[in-house]
Amino acid sequence: VSVADKSSENKYDNLLAKRAAGAVARGIGAPTQKMIAFTYGLPDEDSFPFNDLAAAATKTIMEDGKTIFQYGAPRTLAAYILESLRLEEDTTIAPTQIAVTAGSSQAISLVARVLLDPGDVILCEEFTWNGALHIFKNAETTVIPVEMDEGGLIPEKVEAKILELQAQGIKPKFIYTIPTFQNPTGSTMSVERRLALLDIAEKYDTLILEDHAYHGLAFEGDTPPTLFTLDHERKLGRVLHCRTFSKILAAGMRLGWVAGPEDLMVRLTGLKDDGGTNPFAGYIAATYAQENRLRNHIQDLVKIYRQRRDLMVAALDKHLAGTGVTWNVPAGGFFIWLKLPEGLDSGALLPKAQEAGVNYLPGTSVVPQGVDGKSYIRLSYSFVKDEEIEPGVAALAKTIKESLA
Amino acid sequence: VSVADKSSENKYDNLLAKRAAGAVARGIGAPTQKMIAFTYGLPDEDSFPFNDLAAAATKTIMEDGKTIFQYGAPRTLAAYILESLRLEEDTTIAPTQIAVTAGSSQAISLVARVLLDPGDVILCEEFTWNGALHIFKNAETTVIPVEMDEGGLIPEKVEAKILELQAQGIKPKFIYTIPTFQNPTGSTMSVERRLALLDIAEKYDTLILEDHAYHGLAFEGDTPPTLFTLDHERKLGRVLHCRTFSKILAAGMRLGWVAGPEDLMVRLTGLKDDGGTNPFAGYIAATYAQENRLRNHIQDLVKIYRQRRDLMVAALDKHLAGTGVTWNVPAGGFFIWLKLPEGLDSGALLPKAQEAGVNYLPGTSVVPQGVDGKSYIRLSYSFVKDEEIEPGVAALAKTIKESLA
Q1: Smaller CB count within 10 Å for chain A: N or C?
Q2: CB contact under 8 A, B170 and A237
Q3: Closest residue of B to A62, CA-based?
């Protein structure tokens, strides 16, 4: 019988699971504030393919209603994913290696369930997705941050951290990483770093959880192969890989997937307690995706988000050059990561920025315990209108300059 | 760092969570066998409201697309649930007391997450839903069965079991019960038993998880108020209550809900790791439900399932009278529960029944560890055609009689 955190004043304390003692809901959903919102990693709402999804819904309901309204799993979507992996990434995996999930949130949650006992340790990037941190906290895990630079996670730092833990008798269960168009830093790991990270996982008998949430949203040049594909080629079986349809189709359909070694996937699906991933949403998404509609739609999204990145970079150049603020130029995804000059605190700055009409995510919201994010700002260009970007950055720049003065 | 079950030959043994050592997926989904299937607790596939759901999908996508395709929660469905509780059950609760979930599977899984640490103990009916047993097993819980009779769970037996556990220093975290049209026994607890069960929960400081999956599917007479409503009236705060839209609308939309004391619901939603329950499915279901469409549809379903129950009872009377086989006549829901005469084993009988063209769920599939279900058979009339019922029961009766001879 567990004893919950006594600092809580919940009348159910003596009946709560340990993990529940401090649990509170993470804010999810559309913003209510009226200011220019560089805050949210939400997909652009004007570009959802309303007409095509309505047509796909009607067609799927009328033709496959008995399947999509019954218990089951969205098999046609799983088939589409396997086919796309084969066609676009030359990676052929078995149907038993993949599970369609309720977004990558559920994918990451399932990986946590299959691998983590309370008290276990994992590694992650020092700046990372706060949704994943929330999941790992719920799993009663200790999350150890590893240093990054503009090229993402630094393999040597990962190895050093593993050795440091090893000296304490601790083996990390896995390394959580977003190697491509990283959230929040926008960084992308080179293929050399990816191969080095795989070597480390193999050498120290640990796993990698690769979150590829921004798949498809590459603005230019070649994107390195995923850790999953590299692992597959080398037959190591060290990578669990998850993606979502939230950024490339519609977050509200709650569709994503996780793939990995069959031995692990068998156990993972055995812990999936939701009665099957939404067949209604899944079959409709698969109908929509046919005839290259989804592939073409992603190309449209790339144009939209690239344009916004360009507008934001231009505005940053115009308004923040010479202030000591630095930023990256992401090759894809949703985010630009600002580093403030010494002495500025992004948390303290936030109310002033909001007063000036612009909102952002302070670095303190995207760090595991023990990391100081106060010098950083995440700017998202995904959920603002093109014409909001320049005035939003101008307002932010004005706030920063006033604080510097 | 955990050490997984060494009997497993999984190469990832030393990286698996303890709960994952024996995890395997539970079969969910439509049957593939051609025989008459009294096996599955699936909703009737011909009665899904295809046209109305297609219309609701188109309307919702075109009018609320920016909401239903974005991150969020299906707020209109939560509002519909609260309104229905108020109108139909005179139970008014706050929006903070309810969470829409992916079916009652996710609801039960969340209750397990918020209340159960590994090694905790819960009580449940000696015959119960195997999906819930799967969830409790994944939660590394010990499930203690409590005796039932034709009136469902016996409160005196619950109290005796709690005292027995108390003597061992163990307090059960909650009592899982399906008090209405129970799965698999079809039994319904009287209001007296419900009140007695509440008293016990209060007296011994434990909770009740009430699974009301067959809500609305009452064939005749008054159904007793739910434990949730009785608890609400008495302001005890002892009941977590879950329902599903799987039986009354469409299982494939994966919609259900859980409600309970606000203090618990706050923690429960904090452990909900799926990025929000499917807004796409949820908003469409809420649009469909308007103008009494769902309420009228449930009345149509009652006629369909009552007719099937009547056909099955008549067939049992015709073919099994005098054989020593006994059964209940359920007042609602999907199931008839057969008790075989001494010496017959429903597991051993199954291949013979299948050979004769009829399938069923043996009692051994619906019992916690330690309960012998081999004298029992669950017959479901929900997923067969009217005209299959009499021949199916005749084939089963022939098999039973041959085994008795």
Answers
A1: C
A2: no
A3: B50
Contacts of A115 in chain B (CB under 8 A): 15-17, 20
pLDDT of A288 reads: 98
User: Is residue B310 exposed (0-12), middle (13-18) or buried (19+ Cβ within 10 Å)?
Assistant: middle
d(CA B80, CA B59): 17
Minimum-distance CB partner of B66 among A20, A48, A280: A48
Best of B117, B238, B247 to mutate (most A CBs within 10 Å, chain A): B117
What pTM did the predictor assign? Answer: 0.95
Q: Residue B253 is nearest to which of A58, A69, A173, comparing CB atoms?
A: A69
Q: Quick check: B246 contacting A, CB < 8 Å?
A: yes
Angle at which helices A75-89 and A279-289 pack, to 10 degrees?
40
B180: its two tokens:
């209405």
Nearest to B274 by CA among B23, B100, B135, B55: B100
Instruction: Give me the DSSP letters along B89-102.
Output: H-----GGGEEEES
Alpha-carbon distance values, A242 to A117, A179, A227, A280 (Å): 21, 12, 11, 21
Q: What is the pLDDT of residues B151-192, one digit of tens each?
A: 999 999 999 999 999 999 999 999 999 999 999 999 999 999
ipTM of the prediction? 0.95
Phi-psi region of A169 (alpha: psi -120 to 50; beta: other; left: phi over 0): left
In order of B126, B127, B179, B370, B378, the CA distances from B364 in angstroms are 11, 9, 21, 10, 10
Separation in Å, CA A86 to CA A35, A92, A93, A95, A295: 43, 5, 8, 12, 14
